[in-house]
# Entry
Amino acid sequence: MVCGREIINLTLLRRHTVFGDKVNANAKHVEYFWNVLHTFTQEELKRFVQFTYAQRRLPSTDEEWRTSRTAQLRIKLYRFPEQPKPDPRRERRRLSSRSGQQQAIKKPMSKKQFQQKMDEQLPTAQTCFFDLYLPSYSSEEIMRARLLTAISLESFDNSEEAITITNTTTTATTTATATVDGGSENSVVMSETKEETNTAETKKETAETKGLKKKGRRRKGSKMNV
# Structure
């Protein structure tokens, strides 16, 4: 059930925000996060809520938040996506070679490399629980750019407006198909009818052939008995 007003109240949202393990509410990247949200337009805020909670509205009061059982926004620690595991047989062959042994000795990432990799990531969300996995970006500019990219992805556009447009386009396409020139439609029907007729005739001929073969076998059998 979608409830709430069209306007997203950031002060109210902040009161109903909690933090996962190892995430400090006073961390620098959390401060960047709130600063960026305050620069968003209402449409961008709705898309953010849609990205994190699969709806475009939120309760307008604390009481409504409680009675509607709306989840609290939970900002969680971002983890890098897991790399696919290599084939064990190929990995053993690679490590057996000298070049493979040299590659296997990897140095841990420096703080600078870690931050560069973190700045390249996009935030992710678990919409069932209103969970936001927020990377610890190094600046407010990067935070804004990555958030805008994430909420603008087409795969997250589940808004009522988009659904209406899609349904309208589908209906128009169906109508256009139905109003194709009658002659071409008739020809398709006629060709399908011919194919069905040919198939039926083939089956009939096959059955007649089998019947004749059976009769021939019976005649041979009767001659041999005589």
In short: Residues 10-80+108-172 form a domain with the Hect, E3 ligase catalytic fold fold (CATH 3.30.2410.10).
